[in-house]
């Protein structure tokens, strides 16, 4: 699949050696800029509320670490909504403080490769972290299953983790427990390598206090951490040593150092570890060079995180993972423009939704964000946004670029001078924001903070908007005005409370209206297909097979449009039994061999080898339908 932004070779900034960070953008206040809202506050923290009223927690744990057990749970109101819940015990004041710190860190970190904390509960001796559920399991388990991980996939994963580290480090946060157990796959489909970093339990604000304690696990901890004494501090470079070990373990399935504590430490300090013979003979020189530059005894000689992201092993096109298609990128960018024209109240509501969305809903947006983020720091500055628009729309006139600046300021909801991931998702998601009831439900519950009674009052909205961080930017009056605007828009029956039905109606009406009013152009070629593909994915997620099939037929019709548009493809009935044994979609023979076409088939939402999205719907009905009529297919 073409890399539409052409970023794999590092566009924009010079990439020979260490590219300078882009010059910091100072936020120029332009007319019409919205008041800042700290979207991080759209993460409810419940005290003394019964978590089981809201979630049905599975009895079997899916993971256990040193500090807690993790379970899958279903939202009682919407069973489709799955979350992961980590339950920890507040043994003593020190532990409680550590858990609070973990919450603060996770709340701060807003990045596509960092697991999202959705809300927390504190109940008696227990604390619960409600997180997005990464169903693919630990990278550690994948290594155990397959012995080692292929080099291109390893590089893709290491690059994702590196961007998460760069982002965290630039906020003064070190992870300090980087290991394959703390990197999880978002999807159970093995061809999808999107990962997230979890477990910030040993995370540390190194900008505020000095890191001196010996923490982490022996296999992955840097020598300076293992030897840390109260007198000597160490830096965030400790995560880079661990990153090197993670890469090593993924590539060969074994740790580089073994033996007793002292033996290991000795080998670490001598930088002595096996990197020849099998399987290293078939591993690229770049990969080995990458590891060698990280496993340096002296932290100051270790490759810096910026250099990590510029290293040829991670920038090689072969190791980049899937890219967004042009149609997807166009759709997301056109949504950004629309969103910047919406009202303040609507942008707040959508941002509250975006804060609750998990990776399942953000697949395409995540790819576009990743490609626009050319310096890999996890936020978009004005230059990156301009560059993205130029590449997709070819715009160059000064008026167009000025428009983008105005748009940028409106999208920067928290006024940080850069577009954060959640801000990008809020703006990029478009009408899809109103598609799924359970997502709207999660956002609605963000505001139901006082009595958890399924009704939102003006006071509750003010409480969320008016918490201490926002007060810097918002006076009480502004808060009250915006809360009143939300009440006026939503409270259909005028009883002073918004119920879920009212909230849903408002979100759906407003998003449809904004979509039409803000952009009356003909849809770009490909946009229509893209929308259908998205609708299909939603139908799939909610198990609406009949609807999915109708959409597939529509897609086939849409594919027949004019020049440059994807052509309809005659798909032969798949041969053999129903798809691969894993139940994944299968590619079938086609009349245009170069086009990537996928037949809806099997279960899951996997990707094919070329990186295109593979769309599918539930097996039974579709399999039957495929055989009965000329098979519907999706062109990507
Ligand atoms: N969001 C999540 N989605 C899926 N699995 C998770 C998630 N968070 C944690 N886990 C699983 O639970 C394990 C323990 O969680 P973790 O946060 O690492 O706790 P600890 O601090 O006790 O190590 C992880 O190694 C992983 O297997
Ligand atoms: Mg852990």
Describe this structure in words.
This protein is an alpha+beta fold. It folds into four domains: 13-132, Phosphorylase Kinase, domain 1 (2-Layer Sandwich); 137-319, Transferase(Phosphotransferase) domain 1 (Transferase(Phosphotransferase), domain 1, Orthogonal Bundle); 326-514, Recoverin, domain 1 (Orthogonal Bundle), CATH 1.10.238.10; 525-635, no CATH class. Helices cover 42% and strands 10% of the residues. It is built from 24 helices and 15 strands. It has helices at 51-54, 93-108, 139-146, 151-170, 223-226, 237-252, 261-270, 285-294, 305-310, 312-315, 326-340, 344-356, 363-372, 382-393, 398-411, 421-428, 437-447, 458-465, 468-471, 476-490, 500-518, 527-541, 545-558, 619-628, and strands at residues 45-47, 55-64, 68-75, 82-89, 117-123, 126-132, 137-138, 173-174, 183-185, 195-197, 204-205, 455-457, 497-499, 597-598, 634-635. Strands 1-5-6-4-3-2 form a six-stranded mixed beta sheet. A three-stranded antiparallel beta sheet has the order 7-9-10. The protein has a two-stranded antiparallel ribbon with strand order 8-11. Helix 11 (326-340) packs across helix 22 (527-541), helix 12 (344-356) crosses helix 16 and helix 22 (527-541) runs antiparallel to helix 23. The longest helix has 20 residues, at 151-170. It is globular.
